[in-house]
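Hi all, posting the design record for the shared folder.

TITLE: backbone redesign
STEP: 1 of 1
STRUCTURE INPUT:
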């Protein structure tokens, strides 16, 4: 069975970018945090910090106790997105990038002679060298090569940092038996508990289970997909179309009042509406939530006819806001989420659609994309323009056109791609 998937997984990506851009940080323990505060948590740690036990989610105050000399730097999401885009271009010059799974993980489909082990390994070394030459030698990556995405992802995690692991069909499933269930993408703590409830406590037992047994454990076709993937079959990673889009923000102490919370929600929704139009979708509902200090979380939602109009969405937000609790509790976190997303081509436009409103939205988007996100905005967000900066979620890469606070800078022209037949040393 040929090798079909190559995964490039960058090591301690945010911290590595900081070390690449700031030579004084190289070789030193670094933690990246959303803000410079002892009460926040690390969102990334360099390998020097990881050696002391610091990892994603470690409280900064605790991290300092664990790691004397720890350097805490404030996250710079726009920089990480720019580096991501640069690295995708670099990898793409060696082999076409089929999909970006996250800001630090990309997949290439192996075709033709590149499915042979020797050529696939040669390609992996070429990618590593090209990254070091063009982006910097602190942006190290681990590469996994296997018959399908699941196994390639697994291989990329087996040797870090700067690893290169190949899993071939003739090694399956025995090579997997010594691993833990949660080493596999898609098996969380909760999913492991469900597997154990079905009598599957080890990877060896999972590999020995039948299709029907795994389908019962997952309670869906995902179990059958996992059965096939474990045997090296050419199955694609299961992922559904994104049906929701939203943002949330933890309020600063000064914002923990109704007036500021509403302004932040305005800003979050205006950002989400611009993203919605950018991906050419409509929403059919809006959900809002507020987490209070020492009070129950409040959630409310409302459905409506397909819309991507900012004013209509803000009107819905105002209606929902009127339903909030009157207990006077201090809001701690606010969130908005658009749901029931539908592609534009699947939406039948109303005969009474306001064309002037559509043109207004297009004009606002163009101005904010060209001159900076806060160039033009609806007044409800005026006092919250500095709130809710760009954040990078695990499986979503922010769009700099819609989420960057800074004025966009022209992007350099893409490097020419090296065709497969020209590859080789």
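Okay, here is what came back for every position:
SEQUENCE:
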């Amino acid at each position: 069975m040929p090798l079909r998937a190559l995964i490039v997984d960058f090591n301690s990506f945010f911290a590595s970018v900081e070390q690449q851009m700031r030579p004084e940080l190289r070789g030193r323990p670094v933690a990246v945090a959303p803000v410079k505060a002892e009460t926040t948590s690390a969102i990334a740690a360099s390998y020097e910090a990881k050696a002391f036990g610091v990892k994603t989610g470690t409280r900064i105050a605790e991290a300092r106790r664990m790691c004397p000399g720890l350097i805490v730097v404030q996250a710079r999401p726009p920089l990480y997105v720019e580096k991501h885009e640069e690295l995708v271009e670099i990898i793409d010059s060696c082999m076409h990038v089929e999909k970006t799974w996250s800001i630090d993980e990309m997949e290439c489909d192996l075709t033709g002679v590149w499915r042979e082990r020797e050529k696939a390994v040669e390609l992996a070394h070429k990618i590593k060298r090209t990254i070091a030459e063009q982006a910097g030698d602190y942006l190290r990556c681990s590469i996994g090569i296997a018959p399908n995405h699941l196994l390639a992802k697994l291989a990329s995690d087996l040797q870090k940092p700067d690893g290169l692991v190949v899993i071939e069909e003739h090694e399956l499933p025995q090579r997997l038996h010594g691993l833990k269930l949660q080493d596999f993408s898609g098996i969380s703590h909760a999913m492991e508990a469900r597997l154990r409830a079905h009598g599957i406590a080890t990877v060896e037992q999972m590999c020995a289970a039948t299709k029907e047994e795994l389908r019962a454990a997952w309670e869906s076709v995902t179990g059958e997909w996992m059965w096939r993937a474990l045997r090296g079959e050419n199955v694609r990673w299961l992922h559904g179309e994104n049906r929701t889009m939203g943002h949330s923000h933890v309020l600063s102490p000064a914002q923990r009042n109704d007036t500021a919370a509403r302004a932040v929600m305005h800003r979050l929704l205006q950002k989400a509406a611009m993203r919605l139009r950018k991906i050419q979708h409509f929403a059919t509902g809006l959900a809002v939530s507020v987490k209070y200090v020492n009070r129950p979380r409040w959630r409310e939602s409302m459905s409506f006819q397909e819309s991507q109009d900012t004013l209509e969405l803000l009107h819905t937000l105002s209606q929902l806001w009127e339903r909030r609790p009157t207990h006077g509790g201090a809001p701690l976190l606010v969130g908005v989420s658009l749901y029931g997303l539908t592609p534009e081509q699947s939406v039948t436009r109303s005969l009474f659609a306001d064309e002037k409103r559509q043109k207004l939205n297009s004009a606002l988007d163009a101005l904010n994309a060209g001159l900076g996100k806060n160039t033009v905005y609806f007044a409800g967000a005026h006092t919250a323009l500095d709130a809710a900066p760009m954040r990078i979620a695990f499986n979503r890469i922010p769009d700099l056109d819609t989420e960057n606070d800074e004025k966009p800078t022209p992007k350099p022209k893409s490097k020419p791609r090296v065709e497969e037949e020209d590859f080789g040393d």
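COMMENT: The CA atoms of residues 74 and 362 lie 34 Å apart.
Let me know if anyone wants the other runs.
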